[in-house]
Amino acid sequence: MRRSLDTTIDRIARKYKQYSLWIIAALMLLSLFVMQVVQNTSLVTALTVTVVFSLVCNLVYGECWKRVAKSSSTNLIRFYLVASVLRLLLALSVFLIYLVVVRERQAVIGFALIFAIFYIVLLAFDCLYFVRVEKKINKTESE
Q: pTM of the prediction?
């Protein structure tokens, strides 16, 4: 039974990372397309920072979720809260560092827009994905 649960958790974490990667790639390509259409490629640096932040956060989040789910599934609720707060604080840190380094108003506004879109889309994805996962797990455990 435990082996089956571990395999399920591994599969869920792998799917999460895969879907996250697809969403980040789609958002990146859409952003690049919009930059081409409006003929403004000055935000490529902002897009690069945002994509790297998103990739690192989601890969670490997926790996941490897998470890917490395997060790103690009762702690998952606490994990979701702590991970969301840490991600928010890290996002604010990245934004403030970008603000200090760049200091150009238009570039910072563009970065904030791109960063916020990525952050909100990925936050919505996390919520929807793990609500579905929790429902499936609870349904399986109750049967």
A: 0.90
